[in-house]
Amino acid sequence: MAFKKKGKKDGKYSKSKSSSYSGLSLFQKPGVKFFKSCPLSVKDAPVVDYKNIRLLKKYMSETGRILPSRITSVSQKKQRELSNAIKRARILALLQ
Amino acid sequence: MNCYEHTLIAKGDLSEVDMKKLFDKYSDVINKNSGKVVKTEEWGLRPLSYIIKNHKKGFYFHLKLEGTGKTIEELEKTEIIDKSLLRFLTVKVKKHNLEINYFEKKDL
Which of B72, B81, B69 is nearest to B29 (CA)? Predict the structure, then answer.
């Protein structure tokens, strides 16, 4: 996820200092981003289209289900465009 | 005039001569009904991701056209009867994107 894991490079004391919950802790530093921003709303982001199968496959599970936006962190508007595009590609038997 | 994108899937076991006849037939239907074909793309023989009418492969055609609602109505009316087709899809778009072809074959 978004938070940085502290590697073992920090030295001897890094193990005791950083637990696996460090990113989720209440004492998180202010100004550190925890959530990812939408990857499709950035400048120069790829256009969501039913012909662009390579893009659509990134937002589907291996069994062919549409992944929820809480996992992929896609915005609500783009998620709607994605699900419409995937359903069109399914009609044309391009996707499962 | 509206912009449409139209995709056809023909049965995979047709000969190449039949494919061209089929393709010309539908572009004629569009031209007769006050429509105009802007660009054509051949995606070629592709495996279907699920079986349609006992067919595992289909031949894909993609048309970008301009026309009215009646053009599409007449086009789909003739396609429903056609037995050499597996499926078709029409999508209305605001503007044609003529640059990108996602199914272009790259020479190795």
Answer: B72
In this prediction the pTM is: 0.76
The pair phi, psi for residue B89, each rounded to 5°, is -150, 130
On whether the CB atoms of residues B93 and B5 are closer than 8 A, the answer is yes
- State the average pLDDT over residues A12-20: 48
In this complex, which of B49, B52, B91 lies closest to A94 when CB atoms are compared? B49
CB-CB contact of B29 with B65 (8 Å)? no
Q: Does residue A18 carry a pLDDT above 60?
A: no
Rounded to an integer, what is the distance from CA A54 to the centroid of its chain?
16
Interface of A with B in 35-94 (CB under 8 A): 49-54, 88, 91-94
Q: Is the dihedral of CA B84, B86, B92, B98 positive or negative?
A: negative
Give the span between the Cα atoms of B96 and A25, in whole angstroms: 50
Q: Say whether residue B89 is in contact with chain A using an 8 A CB cutoff.
A: yes
B4 with B72: CB under 8 angstroms?
yes
Bridge partners, B66 (sequence order): B3, B36
The ipTM estimated for the assembled molecules is 0.85
Closest CA–CA distance from residue B102 to any residue of chain A (Å): 6
